[in-house]
């Protein structure tokens, strides 16, 4: 329908008002989720308490030795006796030479399979970032003597920068907010021992039985 001429000014004003309305508010992007912290261990200081792990860790871990099965984390044959202490930072162990002749740990042929199923060389208490691609000297255990050490995957070593003598590395299992996702996972170490001048591999498997908030 055609408008009367006298309504034209009012119609134009209404159109101008509609065109000049405020634009729709812009939506601000949602803030990104905080990054999950990554644990880093300096060396692997052992704890004497009954619960393995850092004193200020968010979670407590319970481990089990599944192969060879042992409630006390031990294994013994006629030549050697082993004792293990799994912890989030590293796998501690003692090996006692039950015979009168020396035996050797061949580090270059010992391996660690981590909680993600990746197998590689082991690092121990004297291994540093610079040793990743070098041969590691064998360690002797004299007759009727005990040797103590700890192991973790050599690929977990982190560049220490100028502090070349330090040993920063990732833990076997993190103690941060991601810890519960590792419950039920397994890891294992294969230690090659030279007994009577012959190599012998001792394989030990461990399971993370539970991860409990502190």
- The unreliable regions are 6-37
Provide the β-strand percentage band.
35-45%
Overall geometric form: globular
Number of helices, where a helix is a run of at least 4 consecutive DSSP H or I residues: 1
Order of helices and strands: HEEEEEEEEEEEEE
Mean pLDDT: 84
> In terms of structural class, how would the helical and strand content be classed?
mainly beta
Query: What does the radius of gyration come to?
Result: 31 Å
Q: Kindly give the count of domains.
A: 1
- Number of DSSP E strands: 13
Q: Main β-sheet, in a few words?
A: 11 strands, antiparallel
N→C terminal distance: 78 Å
Percent in helix: under 10%
Structure, described:
This protein has 214 residues and is mostly beta strands. It contains one helix and 13 strands, in the order αβββββββββββββ. The protein has one helix at residues 8-19; strands at 41-42, 59-67, 69-70, 74-76, 80-86, 91-97, 103-113, 119-123, 139-141, 146-153, 168-169, 186-195, 198-213. The model is unreliable at 6-37 (pLDDT under 50).
């Amino acid at each position: 329908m055609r408008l009367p001429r006298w309504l034209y000014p009012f119609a134009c004003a209404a159109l101008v008002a509609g065109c000049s309305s405020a634009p729709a508010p812009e939506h601000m992007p949602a803030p990104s989720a905080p990054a999950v912290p990554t644990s880093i261990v300096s060396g692997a200081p052992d704890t004497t308490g009954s619960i393995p792990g850092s004193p200020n860790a968010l979670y407590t871990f319970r481990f089990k030795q599944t192969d060879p099965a042992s409630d006390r984390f031990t294994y013994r044959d006629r030549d050697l006796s082993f004792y293990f202490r799994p912890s989030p930072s590293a796998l501690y162990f003692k090996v006692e030479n039950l015979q009168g002749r020396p035996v050797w740990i061949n580090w270059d042929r010992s391996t660690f399979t981590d909680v993600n199923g990746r197998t590689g060389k082991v690092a121990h208490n004297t291994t540093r970032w610079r040793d990743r691609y070098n041969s590691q000297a064998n360690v002797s255990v004299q007759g009727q003597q005990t040797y103590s050490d700890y192991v973790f995957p050599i690929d977990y070593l982190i560049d220490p920068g100028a502090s070349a003598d330090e040993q920063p590395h990732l833990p076997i299992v993190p103690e941060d907010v991601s810890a519960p996702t590792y419950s039920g996972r397994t890891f294992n170490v294969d230690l090659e021992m030279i007994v009577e001048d012959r190599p012998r591999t001792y394989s030990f498997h461990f399971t993370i039985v539970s991860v409990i908030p502190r």
